[in-house]
Amino acid sequence: MIIRRPPSLRYSDVTPREVYLNRRRFLGAGTAAVAALAGPFSAQAFVKLNTAKSTNGAAGEKVTSKDLVGGFNNFYEFGTGKEEPAQLAPKWKVPSPWTVKIDGEVGKAQTIDLDALMKLAPLEEHIYRHRCVEAWSIVVPWIGIPLSAVLKQVNPTGNAKYVAFESYYDSKAMLSPRSAGIRFPYVEGLRLDEAMHPLALLVVGAYGESLLNQNGAPLRLVVPWKYGFKSIKSISKISLVDKELPTTWNISARNEYGFYSNVNPKRDHPRWSQAEERRLGEGSVLSPKTIPTRLFNGYPEVAGLYTGMDLIKNY
CA torsion 233→235→237→239, rounded to 10°? Predict the structure, then answer.
């Protein structure tokens, strides 16, 4: 169902959703099996997003519950445990207006606020599989615009080969690099042709509403054929560059997290197999649903981006 967004309401006029998380536990078998939430979210009114179209990129698969996606996250700025972001991130007051600086190898460098960015293309809902490197997965109805719409706006030069992303970092509200064990601000990157692929989405909402803080409010990237850590949250800067760039987890553990990070069942993590994944919220506590991992997370339309590449070496 499409819910019309009030025309007089700017995204930046709305207070970010304050979520007070009741005690909840994720129980399971193995290293990351998750089963049940105890207690619902309690929240203020939130922005409903009007979407121009909905695309099911995970046809036939059950959408993961909103509470589960809001309560089990990797977001190291707000904690290294899966439950901590849902407890800590809602306390962060998202700067308003939110702006994104876009620079580098472009003809039209600019700083654009979120409301203007959202007008560059109609909002679309894409139901995507989302695969974590830790071998769990979810299915989420993300809402956003193609990343390509933003990149075309700034006229990339012939020297632009890669796209670098940087997260917002607030040292007063977020963990220190020492506490988190990684460098901040968080940085990620894609090849330019990957960034221009229509599946790459700049996301402003999920489940018909604008994003929860713990899910990357107010603007995040979703690249569904790559492991989840490539989908950087709370983006404040985008730069087009001419060389492959350092990324946060590649800096922290190069032998575990490569630049490409494509979902590949044949390329194991050094500490565990990637051949299977646990679908969160499905199955039982003691027997979570386990499914075979698919190359490119089941999005074969991106395969042409990697023709002739060794996907074991270029992991």
Answer: 50
Strand partners, 276: 292
| pLDDT digits 0-9 by tens, 124-149 | 999 999 999 999 999 999 999 999 99
Residue 204: give the domain boundaries: 11-306
d(CA 17, CA 47): 9
Question: Would you state the pLDDT for residue 216?
Answer: 98
Number of neighbours of residue 109 by Cβ within 10 angstroms: 14
The answer on pLDDT for 314 being more than 90 is yes
Give the count of alpha carbons within 13 A of 285, CB side only.
5
Per residue, what are the HEC states of 48-91? ECCCCEEEECCCCCCCCCHHHHHHCCCCHHHCCCCCHHHHHHHH
Side chain identity at residue 268, one-letter code: D
List the beta strands (DSSP E) in the chain.
Answer: 20-21, 41-42, 53-56, 99-104, 110-113, 124-131, 136-146, 162-167, 187-191, 201-206, 209-210, 220-222, 235-241, 276-283, 288-292
Residue 314 lies in a domain: no
Report the distance separating Cα 130 and Cα 132, nearest Å: 7
Phi/psi-derived region of residue 181, left when phi > 0, alpha when psi is between -120 and 50, beta in every other case? left
Q: What are the residues whose beta carbons fall under 8 Å from the beta carbon of 116, sequence distance 6 or more?
A: none
Nearest alpha-carbon partner for 114 in 159, 150, 152:
150
Q: How many domains does the chain have?
A: 1
CA–CA separation, 152 and 146 (whole Å): 10
User: Cis before residue 218, ω within 30 degrees of 0?
Assistant: yes
Report the share of the chain in percent with pLDDT over 90.
83
User: Among 145, 139, 122, 148, which residue's Cα sits nearest to residue 5?
Assistant: 122
Please name every residue paired with 130 in a beta bridge, in sequence order, or none if there are none: 138
Q: What is the CATH number of the domain that holds 275?
A: 3.90.420.10
175 contacts 154 by C-beta, under 8 angstroms? no
In a domain, 71, yes or no: yes
